[in-house]
Amino acid sequence: MHQYLFFIGDFPIRAYGVMLALAIISGASVAYFLLKKDGRGWHEHIIDFSITVAIAGLIGARLWDVFFFDWHYYSNHLLEIPYVWQGGMAIQGGVVFGTLAGFWFVKKHNIDAWAFADVFAPALILAQSVGRMANLFNGDAFGHPTGGNFGILYPESTLAYRTYGNQPLWPAEIWEGQIDILIFVALLLFSSFKHAKGQVFVLYAILYSAARFFLEFLRGDYVNLTMGLKSAQMTSLIVMIVGVCVFIYFGYLDKKQQALTEANEAAIESPTKPKKRK
């Protein structure tokens, strides 16, 4: 792995930044394809939408990591908060801030928010998968020591090496990227069947949160615990519980709406019988 791909003079071109850019481009490209295939014309907004969500997501990911995971360090190094190249981007914060920015954007352009989110969800998880490649190149979001002679050995210039030295570490970021691909496939498959509006995006939130919850047991880049769980696990657990409830509720609303529509259609198709004259 290489943190620096090459230099332009004294300016380094970092693998981290290149991979993050590729993550955004990959997500936007897949979203454009899916939205254009959807046929409602929303693909015309994808460039502006992607830029808006990407900026908000990057800011959110950084702030989430600073305040939830590493505040004990950054509280004494406030000027280093913008130094994203040092590592430290929490994907959960990126999703939260990106979702809020995306909701604002679609409302501004009179787009059905949940329908748009359903189509966009597979593109989002694919972008997250590519983003984990950035973590691997940068040597952050790493696992804790495996305790054996297997695992990833990071270069001396990485945070992983400064934390654990020359110990083999669990490939937490690699496995998360691979699981994201499986979630991407699952969302495409689910969306091809009849479903209630909003359920694809909610399913994305449930599946990713479940994966993140269990992978956190292997993460070694922070160890702050709340009620025996890491902050990312607490967040994931809340999202899973709320997500399952919302998923079921959306299904209930959809069935209720279908029943109402069928009743109205039946009433229209069945004219009132004329009364018999005595």
UniProtKB/TrEMBL annotation:
Main localization, broad class: membrane
Residues of the signal peptide: none
UniProt KW Transmembrane keyword: yes
Subcellular location: Cell membrane
Membrane topology field: Multi-pass membrane protein
Residue sites binding a 1,2-diacyl-sn-glycero-3-phospho-(1'-sn-glycerol) per the record: 132
GO biological process, any: lipoprotein biosynthetic process
Xref: Pfam families: LGT
One term of GO molecular function: phosphatidylglycerol-prolipoprotein diacylglyceryl transferase activity
E.C. numbers: 2.5.1.145
Membrane-spanning intervals of the chain: 15-34, 46-64, 84-106, 113-131, 174-193, 200-219, 231-252
The entry's keywords: Cell membrane, Lipoprotein, Membrane, Transferase, Transmembrane, Transmembrane helix
GO cellular component, as recorded: plasma membrane
Pathway per the UniProt entry: Protein modification; lipoprotein biosynthesis (diacylglyceryl transfer)
Role, per record: Catalyzes the transfer of the diacylglyceryl group from phosphatidylglycerol to the sulfhydryl group of the N-terminal cysteine of a prolipoprotein, the first step in the formation of mature lipoproteins.
NCBIfam families per record: lgt
Family that this chain belongs to: Belongs to the Lgt family.
Full protein name: Phosphatidylglycerol--prolipoprotein diacylglyceryl transferase
Organism the protein comes from: Veillonella tobetsuensis
Taxonomic placement: Bacteria, Bacillati, Bacillota, Negativicutes, Veillonellales
Gene name, Swiss-Prot/TrEMBL: lgt
